[in-house]
Amino acid sequence: MASLDARLESILAAARAEGRDALTEPEGVEILRAMGLRVPVSLFASDSSAAAGLAPAPGDRVVIKVVSPEILHKTEAGGVAMVANEPEAIRAAVADMEARFKGLRVEGYTVNEFVSFEPRLGHEIIVGYRFARDFGPVVSFGPGGIYTEFLAKNFMPGAASLFLSPDGADRGLVREALRGNAVRELLCGGLRGTKPTIEEDRLVDLLMAFVEAAPAFARAGITELEVNPFVVQKGAAGGPAELVALDALAKLGTVASGSGELAVAADGSVVNRAQAERPVGKIDRLLSPASAAVIGVSEKGMNNGRIILRNLLENGFDPARLYVVKAGLEEIDGCRCVPDVASLPEKVDLFVLVIPASQAPACIAELAETDKAESVIVIPGGLEEKSGTEAIVARMRAALDASRSGPSRGPLLNGGNCLGVRSVPGKYNTLFIPEYKLPMPTGRVAPVALVSQSGAFAICRVSKHPDLNPKYVITCGNQMDVTVGDYLERLALDTEIRLFAVYVEGFKPMDGLKTLRAVRRIVESGRRVIFYRAGRTAAGAAASASHTASIAGDYPVTRALLSRAGAAVVESLDDFDDALTLFSAFSDGKKAGGARLGALSNAGFECVAFADNLGRLSIAEFGKSTTARLERTLADAKIGEIVDAHNPLDVTPMGDDALYYDTFDAILADDSVDVGIVGIVPLTARMNTLAAGKGHAEDVTRGDSLAARYGELFARTQKPWVAVVDSGELYDPLARELVRRGVPTFRTADRALRMLNLWLKATASQYARS
């Protein structure tokens, strides 16, 4: 794109020289010409007299437009007129504008070819580029003209407008992104009784022109280029239809500079300068340290520093290589004390900083100057998110930046304003919550990494999922140094991790793009990402900026880009928890050959709920052998005369534990079933569904209980399936026991099926629908 870079430099020269932050329409149209896009014939005149003497434009009508850097929205201001293609009509229209805009800076007027098109829904398209500080260049596409905002607001995400990152985009990806888009369906799919208006390849060509030009736009400092609309013009003499740009709005800014936060790399891409220099390889030391030190430990009470020290010891960290920076003492809790950072007997892999924020910069500076730590977890808050702390932050950043130029490239910082990390391989836990308030999960280590900006969000997930023992729980707070994208990029190399559960309130500059690339690599390797983006509304974005000092960004862009990369982007906190339940349970290798559902319940309403919430699922048709097996089982249970062996199977409240197990085992064994769901309405006296107690002999924890047998079935089969316990708190023990036995369990059918659909969507490249 070297030639485009040169053309852009020439086109932008006048605007740069005049200090303008926007291009005139002729300048914007010239960019479109440089991209090889079709634009109307356009003639320039300085005033009404010159306009009357122009050579005639094609057609019997022309469009007159004012050219002014002070009038960007010309139609609303009266700066656009359609008149007969006659000298006097043209002169009169321009003279009228001369009078209307007297006193404003007007450079002239354009007389433009009138492009005829059908003003129907879908025949006007908006296509744009903008530079987003979190994701870099982004290309957008959707319905244009008067329909733009209405359809974007009222259609399902992705149905009206779509967003693309040029990073990694090709014709195949663009074509896939257009599938299901309303504009593409209207133009290329054809409605009933009509023929397609334009070839799909023309839409792909259009989007690829923007995708390929976007990096050059960013280098040139173009922050936004919008064409609204492109219209569909019928081909001459029966030829193929064309897309013609009728307007162009371009804005300028400083995207990258020699000394700013963003810079142009050797390959021509825009990068975050600090991120490029960051020694992210030290994340390995941070997560699996052999040595550590803590500053801010009280010898008298259980302050946060002391809790962290105790947690480190209780997790099995070697006390011989665990130090406390504390003057005047020999040891605390069996760990050696040293008077200051310089006195540490070795360069530690991990330094945990729990002192007040006002003291943090000096401590970090000392760590960097003495080269005493590979990584630092900065616990204190009140740094970037609190007004009046700018000087503190500046001192901290200066110390960190200076250390980056040294041979060891300085320490890597996690935080501030975070709860730190719980690392099972690293044998440590800096989440300063006492064990009696937050018992840490034990047992089998789940192949899960929970990465969260918010410490409170992370510990709430740990509390709500006591049977899930993630390999890593990482809270990164304000991301003053290491970011969410850094963690995902590094952890993607750990093939033991099968599921990444991510909570983000805002990205640091260009870290959205880094996250996007990491998500792509993770998903392409057959692993899963659950993603929740907070700060989606104006109020939420303001709260997010206050909380984490990050870029709130544009949520529709985040959702579109990460979803297309294969992440399961959830819309609510409940969905995050439900997805964590299901995806983690399926991370042991559950596979579906399709989307055919086998369903069992003992309640008619639940069977109807299954059918009403199928989504991308379909009801499987049982094979003959399965039907025969079910009929025998139902007959043995003495309910064969009232229950038909069909799908969903309703065994009624007459079904007992044995019937529940045998019938669902048969359903899952059917080759026509890819995915299963079993609903247990537990109020029937025929089933063991209560915790042990007075007045009955039930106990859901017994070895012969349905929960135990379903746990064995879940471990035995590779087919994914879920359970539903739709009832009140009396039956919470049953739901908990199922979860404890490894079975993903939900409290309503619609929640269960929503998660199954989310999982199937995330694995869509592997599974074909029947």
Describe this structure in words.
With 770 residues, the chain is of the alpha/beta class. It is 36% helix and 19% strand. The strands form 6 sheets. A 7-stranded mixed sheet has the order 15-16-14-13-17-18-19, sandwiched between helices. A 7-stranded mixed sheet has the order 21-20-23-22-24-25-26, sandwiched between helices. Strands 5, 6, 7, 8, 9 and 10 form a 6-stranded antiparallel sheet that branches. Helix 1 packs antiparallel against helix 2, helix 22 runs antiparallel to helix 23 and helix 24 runs parallel beside helix 25. The longest helix has 21 residues. The C terminus is likely disordered.
In round numbers, the mean pLDDT is 92
> Roughly what percent helix?
25-40%
Number of domains: 5
What is the CATH level 1 assignment of the largest domain? Answer: Alpha Beta
* Helix and strand composition category: alpha/beta
